Amino acid sequence: MDRIYADGRSGGTASLAPAHNLAxxxxxxxxxxxxxxxxxxxxxxxxxxxxSSGTVGADFQDQWxxxxxxxxxxxxxxxxxxxxxxxxxxxxTFRYEVTDPRYPKEWIEDERGPRCxxxxxxxxxxVRCDKTLDMFV
Length: 137
Fold this sequence. Notes:
Elements: H1 19-22, E1 47-48, H2 54-63, H3 72-75, H4 88-95, E2 107-110, E3 113-116
Antiparallel strand pairs: 1-2, 2-3
């Protein structure tokens, strides 16, 4: 498999991640991210997204699921909360392989990077605190 290096070169057999996993180097994509530094996909079209590791998955959950209304009842429910209250999209990503037809279609990766197309902002946990002043106004 061709590898993509940080400086844009490709090829070789170094143990780097494939291009679609290297995209987060030096750039944190989030629901609030603007067009800043978009990630280019080799195919140019959306494809199912599955985090490449537990760390990448935890980062994705923190940036997307941690601010989404779909998982709010589970997230805020404490240790005895019913798992059925959680986001079923998130739960399905743990149950199914990315190649399984039941894997959620909402988790995609495209030229904007990995994201959940079903994201709905939780008003109690906004992506950016509305009480924080802008640094560069």
